[in-house]
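User: hey, got a sec? need Glycosyl transferase folded
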Amino acid sequence: MDKLVKALKNPRLALFLLVEKLSFLFSDKIYLQLCFYLKMGKKLNLKHPVTFNEKLQWLKLYNRHPKYTQMVDKIEVKKYVAKKIGEQYIIPTLGVWDTPDEINFEMLPNKFVLKCNHNSGVGLCICHNKNKLNISKVKKDLSRGLRQNFYWIAREWPYKNVRRRIIAEKLMVDESGIELKDYKVFCFNGEPTIIEVDYDRFVGHKRNFYDKEWNFLDLEIQYPSDKSHEIPKPNCLEQMLLLSHKLSEGIPHVRTDFYCINDNLYFGELTFFHEAGLGTFRPVEWDKYLGSLISI
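Assistant: Yep! Here you go:
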């Protein structure tokens, strides 16, 4: 409903949503050009891309390495990461299934996380008390998630051939006991550069950005930042940057996500296309600067 109201006030957004619905009509290139223009308000430069967003669209089309499929699969990526940096950074897996009906909820602990391995949030279940869990709704949500063709939404090629499954993981919480701070490290050909920290995701999502020395950066991408909200430098920052380097070597751009719990690092995920390459930068100069760090 919220999307519909916004679309009625913004004709370009309405067209964007229509193109999304009719995405099957368009080739990858045409679809990305249409979405970029309708979302960003300017033509997509694929011949000589300059900005971060433009180069991410270029990479979707022309940087299709087979290993990327494993790297975005929330199940298979654990093998990749364990081999690269060690199993001690992997969040424990409680189970893997092809369908919701295969899940034996009695065998799961009181607290756990259920999610699809191929998308970003649709079907996610964060269970804090199994006795209060609406299992029927959880299964319905997971079924909806499994039906989602995540590649089709923004033509992020790595997701195209992921075998869709469900994974259960141990529920991890930090010192707050409420949610995890998500440290997202932007890496360019193996070089960690800036760190994004998301917080208050359920009550007014915000993001702060920091450099490698943990200086606050005047940068916003899609969500507001708050300099007055001081996020302490994690004790494991140096280790996080080292592991990010190892995971991103030889890749033009990838975001390596970690959680820091009681000074212990845990791997989150790898993301090749931040905000699908359609993020709004404030100030806009950052779009060009980060783009200059991607060699294509």
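Quick note: Residues 92-169 form one domain. Let me know if you need anything else on Glycosyl transferase.
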